[in-house]
Specification:
Strand 2, helix 2 and strand 3 form a beta-alpha-beta unit. The chain has 207 residues and is an alpha/beta fold. Helix 1 packs across helix 6 and helix 5 packs across helix 6. The radius of gyration is 16 Å and the shape is globular. The structure holds 5-O-phosphono-beta-D-ribofuranosylamine. The site of 5-O-phosphono-beta-D-ribofuranosylamine has 15 residues, from helix 1, strand 5 and helix 6.
Amino acid sequence: MLELGVLISGRGSNLMAILDAIDAGTLDARVRLVISNKKKAAGLAKAAERGIPTLAISHREHPTREAFDAALVAALREVGVDWVVLAGFMRIVTPVFLQAFPNRVVNIHPSLLPAFPGVDAQAQAVAYGVKVTGCTVHLVNEGVDTGPIIAQSTVPVEEGDDRDALADRLIVEEHRLLVEALGLVAAGRLEVVEHGARARVAIRPLP
Ligand code: GRF
């Protein structure tokens, strides 16, 4: 059973997708704690409605990024979390966090990395004029959206799409891909392979 901690900053729709999959019996996991750096994140209330323990830990309450991360780590460890999902979490985690959960922090990003890393990847895709974009689930490393890729999925950009139209199409695929990727984690099928300078994720075949 995957013991998950989920970090959010906003509406938490990816968190809801995880909870829905768990409730449907399609994801062998349990969400032990949801933490948001934003006290008013709608995802906190939605998680609480479903009986999931929640915490708001503001990064403003800590003098440094490292101190903030140490507070996150303490809260997650206290409830036995062994994998962490960044689901719409808008903070960059530091090595303090990554050392506590080595190769066990998963992020969902709304582009086909390495294209369009960082903030508002959906707007970047529309501005660039790509015809196909997508979403990526990856292990988090010390960079921004640069960690080893677990899974990707493509989403078309339609004529006349503005940022919101594309984001609405992308988010549906993000939910599916995130649950699929976490299923691989739950099945113990991920293997991190060092390939020279860049680590990669190999997916072990089904037995
Ligand atoms: C999603 O597009 C996610 O990929 C990005 O933040 C957006 C909001 O996610 N990181 P959520 O609805 O809060 O899960």
